[in-house]
Design brief:
Structural class: mainly alpha
Number of helices: 5
Radius of gyration: 18 Å
Order of helices and strands: HHHHH
Helix content: 55-70%
Shape: flat
């Protein structure tokens, strides 16, 4: 028997779905970038300050509405064509209904 029994390998495979793996790998990087942006170390000029402000506002709005910011921002990217057509449907507190209405669960 090796270091990792077959049943443990199967459990790890079921646990580490692609979405979870992305979250495990990308989220710490994302949080470091947020910390740097909050400290002003990442932002260089007025345009990037405005972009950073918008992102921070979205992230804090997600947190206030108990929505995971990473999931919300990924949903916006995945539905980039639909968001400008009805932006009021893609706010952190109602974007899940917009996904369901689009039939893209």
């Amino acid at each position: 028997m090796g270091l990792c029994p077959k049943s443990l390998k199967a459990k790890l495979y079921r646990f580490l779905t692609p979405a979870r793996l992305v979250r495990i790998v990308a989220q710490p990087i994302y949080e470091v970038l947020i910390g740097l942006a909050a400290q002003g170390q990442l932002l260089q000029n007025d345009d990037t300050h405005r972009i950073g402000d918008v992102h921070m506002s979205l992230i804090h709005t997600c947190e206030l509405n108990q929505v995971h910011p990473f999931d919300y921002l990924m949903a916006l990217q995945q539905h980039v064509a639909a968001v400008p057509k009805a932006p009021q449907s893609w706010l952190p507190w109602n974007y899940e209904q917009a996904i369901a209405a689009a039939g893209c669960g």
